[in-house]
Amino acid sequence: xxxxxxxxxxxxxxxxxxxxxxxxxxxxxxxxxxxxxxxxxxxxxxxxxxxxxxxxxxxxxxxxxxxxxxxxxxxxxxxxxxxxxxxxxxxxxxxxxxxxxxxxxxxxxxxxxxxxxxxxxxxxxxxxxxxxxxxxxxxxxxxxxxxxxxxxxxxxxxxxxxxxxxxxxxxxxxxxxxxxxxxxxxxxxxxxxxxxxxxxxxxxxxxxxxxxxxxxxxxxxxxxxxxxxxxxxxxxxxxxxxxxxxxxxxxx
Length: 252
Prior knowledge:
alpha/beta, 9 strands
């Protein structure tokens, strides 16, 4: 039986520090148990808030990144310096301010002219970093995810082939708008993670949060974010109060 999600709702002003504290706890445990921390980052404005918090002086002193390998949950098929690139955002908001060296960073090469080749190459990268040969599925320590207003997460969009891919670790995703072509981790590797952490803020996400966490229909249960169900790991939703405002089962 899939474990119930751990739903945490915090005040908007406290959310970033709570997210950073949680990340530190997961990192410390991974390093203590396995000597390294395998972290898959998410793009978007909400994770960016966390990244900027981690670069503040308090957190610079508290976090030890020497044992961390930074992977990515998804990427748009754009060059690494493009304004829509998840890597470019993480580079500006996290890696550069912290002085993270390139030997710790494993980005998806969205600029590849053949997205399918880029997906295969990143699958090889994930296997290399995790030392996990096929057909086994690697276990990342933490996968950070966001939530789209259409229920997508990473670049797994409703009704797309990537959502159904049970063969690969990385697939080509297709978004309905914006930069259409994406690279994305598949549900197989996401659900294998030790910890999956949804980072969601803002009232515009409240309705979708309720649909995913308190589904009322088959359509709700088939939303990409609702299909994130860890095989054995922990599933945590860290919400600010506006994002969790429509949940009925949470005592406030």
